[in-house]
Design brief:
The protein is α/β, with parallel strands linked by helices. The protein has helices at 20-27, 58-72, 86-98, 121-137, 140-150, 159-170, 173-184, 190-195, 213-222, 241-244, 246-262; strands at 4-9, 34-38, 79-84, 106-112, 200-205, 229-234. Helix 2 (58-72) crosses helix 3, helix 4 (121-137) packs antiparallel against helix 7 (173-184) and helix 5 runs antiparallel to helix 6 (159-170). The longest helix has 17 residues, at 121-137. The model has no long low-confidence stretch (mean pLDDT 97). Bound molecules: D-malate.
Length: 263
């Protein structure tokens, strides 16, 4: 098999720009067999053709992305699917809902700074409070809640932090509230991972405070049917490993793509 595309899904409350460092590396031949990155904006933001809905169920976002893939990628072109945090939850739904359709094309899965567990009661209460804070104070409430948790100590004051701030502030408040409502009712993803039978990369920043390394370990632990599994702990990264340490993320993705070519 020759070149492949990477379909990369952003987290909450971000957009496609978080994947720019990897897209640049793919274009420069520094992502192994991955020659380009298709990073759609999820519903209700940026360049997405899909308008915001009252509740962004992960299944709804997955159906959008499946349509985006059909429209943007040449038919039958192989691809790898990657997601960061909320993007990872959307990946689980794509595999569940569209896995059969993409069976011959979807060659591997990369999960960055995400988790397979669903929200517990405390998590759901936190989402409700976050929605009310955005309703009252606008998207700045999401920025002040998220930014302190999103980056490693060494990323503070960098261009990565500046981009995270700009992405959060560019997210329409109604979109962020709908995302939070969808995150609160999402399903767990362990069933998808235990059935997954293609290469799997799970990457996590060693300072990720939102989806810590223990969540990454729990995901690889159930992936018994995958022919190749790599748990990559990225030093000096928080919740945004592909943006904070793109060279480490690129190396992991190149390995995943090579494994996908072999299997
Ligand atoms: C994200 O980065 O997408 C969110 O932190 C996900 C979450 O809050 O569960």
């Amino acid at each position: 098999m020759s070149a492949m595309q990477l379909v990369a899904l952003h987290g909450y409350p971000l957009d496609h720009r978080m994947w720019d460092p990897l897209a640049e590396r793919a274009a420069g031949g520094r992502l192994g067999p991955i020659t380009s990155v298709f990073a759609p904006d999820l519903r209700g933001r940026g360049r997405s053709a899909h308008p915001a809905a009252p509740l962004h169920a992960m299944a709804l976002l997955a159906d959008d992305v499946a349509r985006d893939i059909e429209a943007a990628l040449p038919a039958n072109e192989p691809f790898l699917l990657a997601g960061l945090s909320m993007g990872g939850y959307v990946c689980f739904e794509i595999v569940k809902r569209h896995g059969a359709r993409f069976r011959g094309r979807l060659k591997g899965l990369a999960l960055f700074d995400t988790k397979a567990a669903a929200d517990d009661d405390a998590g759901r209460a936190g989402r409700k409070a976050a929605i009310e804070a955005i309703r009252k104070d606008g998207i700045e409430a999401a920025l002040s809640a998220m930014l302190p948790k999103m980056l490693a100590r060494g990323s503070k004051g960098t261009a990565a932090e500046d981009l995270v701030r700009r992405m959060v502030l560019a997210t329409p408040p109604a979109t962020a509230m709908a995302d939070l409502a969808g995150l609160a009712v999402r399903d767990e993803g362990f069933d998808v991972l235990s059935a997954w039978d293609r290469p799997l990369l799970v990457a996590v920043g060693d300072e990720d405070a939102i989806a810590p390394p223990s969540d990454a370990e729990a995901m690889t632990a159930v992936a018994a049917r995958a022919p190749w599994v790599k748990l990559l702990t990225v030093p000096g990264a928080g919740h945004m490993a592909p943006l904070e340490q793109p060279d480490e993320a690129a190396a992991g993705l190149a390995e995943l793509a090579e494994a996908a070519q072999r299997t």
